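Problem 12. The chain below contains 112 residues. Write out its predicted structure in token notation.
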Amino acid sequence: MNDPDPSRLALLRFLERVQVRDLQRTRHWIAVEEQREQERQRSVRDRPVPPEWLLEQGLNRSSPPVQVHCGDCWNKGKRSVGISLDEARRALVEGVKACGACQPDSRLGLLD
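Solution.
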């Protein structure tokens, strides 16, 4: 564009180059966003199924279990591990306290 008075055709060619560059950049952004969406969907699909029952462990290895929780309990402790239905029943029958928030003993039909 060294001409002091560029032609209309030269200006249109310049505009075309700018628009092609913008279109390429937009297509790149779309590809990046599609990749993110695929990764998000894969993480949702591959997320492990949460356990239905939890056993909250004591403070150390020699401490007895503290409570039994339902898997979706909002009050579960950080030291909770997933257990099976039979293990949850056995723990409650053996005297492990049932969580007062989610009441697993009620859900399992083990109320006295």
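Discussion. The two ends are 91 Å apart (CA to CA). Students who got a different answer should revisit the alignment rule from Section 12.3.
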